[in-house]
Amino acid sequence: MPNVLAFMNMKGGVGKTTLAVNVAHGIAKLHNKKTLLIDLDPQMNATEYCLSHEDLVDLLSGENIGSIFSALERRRGVIQMTMNQLFNASKKNRKETVEGIREVIDTLYLLPSHLRMWELDIRENKQVLLKLLEDIGDEYDYIVLDVPPTLSPYTHAALLAADFYIVPIKLDVLSIWGLEFFQAWVNNTTPPSGTSVAELLGVAANMVQGRRVAEEYAEKDLIGRGYGDALFETKIRNKADVHNALVSATDGKTLDSRFLLNRKDDHLPAQISSLTREIIERVEARNRAKEND
Fold first, then answer.
1. Is the pLDDT of residue 163 over 60?
2. Bridging pattern class, strands 35-39 and 74-75
3. Cα(80)–Cα(97) distance, integer angstroms
4. In this structure, are residues 124 and 156 in contact, taking their beta carbons and an 8 Å threshold?
5. Separation between Cα atoms, residue 32 and residue 135, nearest integer Å
6. Domain extents for the chain?
7. What are the distances in angstroms from CA 128 to CA 77, 84, 91, 216?
8. What are phi and psi of 65, to 5 degrees?
9. CA–centroid distance for 187 within its chain
10. Which CATH topology does 3-292 take?
11. pLDDT tens digits, residue range 181-224?
């Protein structure tokens, strides 16, 4: 079975999607692991990051809500199955979802989101994502979930489907309080019979300015609250190149230029590489520990 990682946080503005996409890319490119990125966020940021302008327009131009929610819409011979259809799909259509997965680059694939996911009510169907991953089985080494920055039914569905979750934060007071509230919500979540909730794999410090007193204080506060072991050693700097990569995602440039590993920067590619390595090492260590139990 694949290792399923969810990038989750109840606070926006911490670079969650950027980190999820680029870690997925790092797992695929650097470690040659077949990786599926699933965009669970109706804002579609991960989808926009990974698709060309033409494919994005094609994805959004469904003729009516029925064709978007229920049917497998075919345009130019490509099945346009998105996450919104998945949450309204039968078991048969869940299996067909695999046909709608897009190849981004070698070994990296995307199951897109859709803006109209906001219109779906999945409160009684939170296990459908878990069922999809069971249907996919061993086709992927890693599955990365980009989850909305809210405590929503999509967050709940991801928590049930994932093996581990990663919380991206800024080193500031609001992010740390957000982490505490999110952890309290996870701890109070009761999974349905026969299922379990994901484990915290780690806390990733993102958008770090460097050598700021406030960030040093925030990191000490984080450690004091018991997150010292959870905090990844690698920190991702907040640099102009990250912004430039996001701009590249919408200006028609090649897909390769969008990923931080491919940016011409002294530090960002090395930081993404290092964080990806840490994540894989932790996953493998946890899996070995479970096997030995």
1. yes
2. unpaired
3. 9
4. no
5. 23
6. 3-292
7. 27, 11, 9, 42
8. -65, -30
9. 21
10. Rossmann fold (3.40.50)
11. 999 999 998 877 777 889 999 999 888 877 678 788 888 988 99
83 φ, ψ to 5°? -60, -35
Mean pLDDT computed over every residue of the chain: 78
Model confidence, pTM:
0.83
Query: How far apart are alpha carbons 37 and 101 in whole angstroms?
Result: 9
Judge whether 154 and 148 are in contact, CB under 8 Å: yes
Q: Are 203 and 230 spatial neighbours (Cβ–Cβ below 8 Å)?
A: yes
CA–CA distances in Å: residue 234 to residues 27, 40, 139: 16, 26, 30
Please list the alpha-helical segments (H only) found in 162-267: 173-187, 213-222, 240-248
Task: Give tens-digit pLDDT for 241-273.
Answer: 565 555 555 555 567 778 888 887 668 899 999
pLDDT tens for 60-117 read 764 322 232 333 233 323 334 455 555 555 555 444 445 567 888 889 998 887 776 6
CA dihedral 259, 44, 154, 144 (to 10 degrees): -20
Whole-number Å distance between alpha carbons of 249 and 143: 22
Q: If you search the block for the tokens 């997150």, which residue do you land on?
A: 227
